[in-house]
Amino acid sequence: MSDTEYRVEREVTGSQGRYVIYLAPDAEAEMTFRKAENGNITIDHTGVPPAYEGRGIAARLVNAAIADARAEGFKITPICSYVVAQFRRHPEWEILRA
Questions:
Q1: Domain assignment of residue 79, given as a range
Q2: What is the per-residue pLDDT for 2?
């Protein structure tokens, strides 16, 4: 799979969910979140297998959540250190912070 073919999927079960990229039959990258009753999400973890680090995969996961927040009108509370850092790098996202 080439880097341009990575497809982000959102999976939600009850009040928990994740954004995931299936990288290989035995490898996936994910960013997990909890969903509040008001629809906002708290992102609490991002993980990319070591063999796939440095390819912008984690950024794709965050960008998918940002795009969904803009399209669906929910806010994000970042507690995962990677997502906190991404919010610092993108001040234009501040409007999406819960």
A1: 3-96
A2: 52
